[in-house]
Write a structure and sequence with these properties.
Elements: H1 38-57, E1 66-70, H2 75-89, E2 96-103, H3 113-120, E3 125-129, H4 132-139, H5 147-164, E4 169-171, H6 176-190, E5 199-201, E6 208-210, H7 218-228, H8 244-259, H9 263-271
Parallel strand pairs: 1-2, 1-4, 2-3, 4-6
Antiparallel strand pairs: 5-6
Helix pairs in contact: 1-2, 1-7, 2-7, 6-8, 6-9
The structure holds iron/sulfur cluster (SF4).
Iron/sulfur cluster is lined by residues 106, 146-147, 150-151, 235-236, 238, 240.
Length: 296
């Protein structure tokens, strides 16, 4: 697929409202075979709008020229790549994109799927093989879950590749539910208020970690990925299961949303409206200096 990319026209200070250089209804070639239904178009536009808003709200483009997009083969990272390519095609994303998959040596990993797909959509990409699976199996005691160590090793390798590729940021496909689940895991089990931020500087201080899907709902991404017929590779080929805690948070949030629709969006909004003087952290708010002015 030969994809022409118009030159960027966006004012990077105001991406959420910058005009497209192509009509909003025009379709990137990646969408050529997709459903022409009103509902799919609405979904595509909603996701694009949310990605633009997150990029804008968190100043993700500041100082950025080249992004490494982590592609796991799951629905979220495929969707992220398609949406970013669309924004780039519309002249709204003035950065180069390099897609990267880290083949971690899981048994039965279908090695041909991602290179074939990434070549077919004409995106620059790098496929890297690192057998972190063997390290995880060796280090995690029997009965333990692999995912935490596996993710840490994956992240370290992706940082290295981002540096080797001359990228300023590692861009990941975490979405609204990932952010809420992490928040509640920290809240219930970690004793702190923290989650995956939409924009983070790595510990070494040389790379940003960006999450442009921060406002996107997992359900929307699942519907988008299914309509786009992405060649999904499951992340449980290794036979491991994600931690029970995350699954419990997922179930709790789904239950709340089912009983009170819209609560997930409300919770996400709350994470963006923090009032330190109405919490209990003296490091965030100087309660010691708080005095009432005696009335004259
Ligand atoms: S399911 Fe397997 S491959 Fe996926 S994060 Fe967990 S350990 Fe890694």
């Amino acid at each position: 697929m030969d994809i022409a990319i118009p030159s960027p026209t966006a004012d990077i200070e105001d991406l959420a409202t910058a005009p497209d250089s192509v009509s909003d209804d025009a379709l990137h070639p990646i969408f050529a075979k997709m459903p022409s239904s009103v509902s799919f178009n609405k979904l595509r536009k909603r996701l694009l709008r949310q990605v633009r808003q997150a990029i804008d709200d968190f100043g993700m483009l500041k100082g950025q020229t080249r992004w490494l997009i982590g592609i796991s083969g799951g629905k979220d990272s495929y969707s992220l790549l398609a949406l970013l390519m669309d924004l780039q095609w519309r002249g709204l994303l003035p950065v180069e994109l390099v897609a990267c998959n880290l083949d971690q040596g899981q048994p039965n990993f279908p090695k041909h799927v991602l290179p074939e797909y990434l070549s077919s959509i004409g995106v620059k990409h790098r496929i890297e093989y690192r057998d972190t699976y063997s390290i995880v199996k060796e280090k995690v005691p029997a009965g333990g879950t692999y995912c935490a160590l596996c993710s840490r090793l994956r992240r370290g390798n992706l940082y290295r590749i981002a540096r080797e590729e001359g990228c300023d940021a590692l861009v990941l496909g975490h979405h609204r539910e990932d952010i809420l689940e992490t928040f509640f895991m920290n809240f219930f089990h970690g004793g702190r208020l923290a989650t995956m931020p939409a924009k983070l500087l790595n510990d070494e201080g040389d790379l940003m970690v960006l999450r442009p899907l921060a406002y996107a709902a997992e359900d929307d991404l699942a519907k988008f990925a299914s309509a786009m017929e992405f060649p999904i590779i499951p992340c449980d080929l290794c036979g491991s299961q994600d931690g029970l805690e995350r699954n419990a948070m997922k179930a709790m949030l789904s239950d709340i949303e089912r009983r009170m629709p819209g609560r997930k969006d409300t919770m996400l909004r709350a994470l963006g409206h923090v009032n330190p003087s109405h919490l209990l952290d003296p490091k965030l708010f100087d309660f010691q200096s708080l005095f009432a002015e005696p009335k004259a």
